[in-house]
Design brief:
Layout lengths: L1 H18 L2 H4 L11 H21 L1 E2 L8 H5 L1 H17 L5 E6 L9 E6 H26 L13 H12 L1
Helix pairs in contact: 1-5, 1-6, 3-5, 3-6
Length: 169
Amino acid sequence: MLHSSAKDLLSQLDHIIDSCRDEDFARPLAELSGSTFGQHIRHTLEFFICLYDAKNDGLVNYDQRKHDQLIETDRKLARSVIDSIRSFLDENTEDFELTFEANYSNKEGQDHPMKSSFYRELAYNIEHAIHHMALLKVAVKQSLNYISLPEHFGVASSTVRYRASAKSN
């Protein structure tokens, strides 16, 4: 279930990246506080990349993202990264232990390790992606309205279920 949810979100991101014009992918947008469409895509994908990399050493630390500017400016590369993440998810269907490490301080060297798992971090990546997709949705509707959005783009599955049950009552 987690894998199919993650892959569905990645497919939705792939769709809007494919639909976005090159000049709009890296253009700062007021609706994103001056960030670009591509920066939000890169940020979202890099969380998945951190989880992908954690398979090798058992440690996931989202603070250590690479901030790869090529992903945020090159639509083809961003789409290729999505394909790699989808392949990784297809190959890794079983849960495994991880150590999650984060620094919630403004000072360096305050990393705090915590026990976690692949499934737990995949769930976090899904929630994180939905959050950024909701932000992208605002930007698309305001400045990039030529991009067609999938029906539930940027909406949590719990909200989709709630709305459906509210309609039936």
